[in-house]
Amino acid sequence: MIPMKYIENRTYDEIQVGDSATLTRTLKPQDIQLFAIMSGDVNPAHVDPEYAKSSMFREVIAHGMWGGALISTVLGTQFPGPGTIYIDQTLHFSRPVGLGDIITVTLKATRKFDHNHHIIFDCLCTNQDGQKVIAGTAEVLAPTEKIKRERIEMPEVTLLDREARYQHLLDRTKGMPPALMAVAHPCDAESLGGVVTAAEAGLIVPILVGPEGKIRAIAREHGFDLGSMEIIDVAHSHDAATQAVALVRAGRAEALMKGSLHTDELMAEVVATGTGLRTQRRISHVFIADVPTYPRTLLITDAAINIEPTLDDKVDIVQNAIDLAHVLGVPDPKVAILAAVETVTAKMRATIDASALCKMADRGQITGGVLDGPLAFDNAVSIVAAKTKGIRSAVAGRADILVVPDLESGNMLAKQLEYLAEALLAGVVVGASAPIVLTSRADTAEARSASCAIALLMANAKRKQAI
To answer: How far apart are the first and last CA of the chain?
Structure first.
């Protein structure tokens, strides 16, 4: 239904006894959330699906006054409309309103009082089955002067439910045995807290590698329960990196996690010839970004390992990301090779690399995904932008994977999405013989757990291949 451009009232003299007006609304999840935020009413019957399953209604229901507010909407906007003053309202609630219910509000004028311009309305709310939901009466002071105003467009509201998105990621790991994870030098509150959070969530069984006295002191200071976590006592961070990598290489751990040591210190052990975790592939990093304003999960690579990758490096970077997308349940990921422009020019190496990568995919040198590039960022994520520029592509506007020209651009892109677009970021190193969680000192415990969830999905996929 196209909204009216103007909002206009009906005056006391224009309304006759028996006149009526209706309004229809469908209850959506965001309606319940917005009402709870506005009112502060976070009764679990309305906002906690798990609790609601055990309630008498067996499902999340709307706040009772959500329906009452619809009555107020009719009175204030159309019948009588602007200028109406609420005097009295009675409501009787007959049955709950559940998600997806279509509620029709009907107001009927039943009495008029000429001496004070009051009108009494019968109020009835019914659902899509014609069942009575709310009934009552309203008394208002009706306007006596005609009012017609341009309808004010209200701002669009976007609910950024970070906790729900985080929980959705963790839900993907349900039923999977936790990953055995060697944690190198978790010797500050952030890194140790992330380990404890991930362990409590059932994502990992950690093996802590570092100075035991220091680890236990941090746990005591911050109230972390280490329970029965195994601790391998080593003198310093370099020994921790060596021992943690050795645990993974020997099969005692399925994944590796960086603690409070420098990335270079850990990765030096990962890539060490003969003792590290290298494969025939070049190692790369992938950020997994859940962006509220984008309809699919975005994989951004490489933003942490390869500073200025060559074309040969990018072949492995792309293939690593495609393989990870398969693990995440995207069978034929769309890969956008990013550059500043969408045309190939010898003046910009990123555009030449992009065109070469696409041709290599055509020849089977990269498999498992659909590649296109060069694509500017707007063309990669916006169908409208792509159409405006006349780009016809199966990838443009629908990208699952964004391959950046270099580490700097990728790191800035990922961090901008995190801090300016409320993206939930997880990160993992791929191309090694086991998943590696690289954490930043600025990462929250939530971000660290999210990364552990990705590592668990990878470890579980590897288990299945071994069967």
So the answer is: 55
Give the Å distances, CA to CA, from 319 to 14, 276, 290, 333, 451: 71, 21, 21, 11, 20
> Cis peptide leading into 82, omega within 30 of 0?
no
* Model confidence, pTM: 0.78
Do residues 203 and 178 touch, judged by C-beta distance below 8 A? Answer: yes
Q: What is the pLDDT of residue 2?
A: 47
Domains 6-150 and 281-431 share a fold: no
Q: Which regions of the chain are under pLDDT 50?
A: 1-2
pLDDT digits (tens, 9 = 90+) for 303-352: 999 999 999 999 999 999 999 999 999 999 999 999 999 999 999 999 99
Strand 334-338 to 401-403 pairing: parallel
What are the boundaries of each domain within the chain? 6-150, 281-431
Q: Kindly list the distances between the CA atom of residue 429 and the CA atoms of 92, 180, 245, 293, in Å, as whole numbers in the listed order.
A: 59, 16, 14, 26
- Smallest CA-to-CA distance from 189 within 155, 210, 219 is with 219
What string of DSSP letters covers 31-58?
Answer: HHHHHHHHH----HHHH-HHHHHTSTTS
Which is it for strands 284-290 and 370-375: parallel, antiparallel or unpaired? unpaired
Record: fold of 281-431: Isopropylmalate Dehydrogenase (3.40.718)
Amino acid 74 reads V
Q: Which 8-state DSSP code applies to residue 209?
A: E
pLDDT at 3: 54
Contact (CB, 8 A) for 192 and 445: no
- Assign domain 6-150 one CATH number from 3.30.1370.10, 3.40.50.300, 3.10.129.10, 3.40.228.10: 3.10.129.10
d(C-alpha 126, C-alpha 205), whole Å:
53
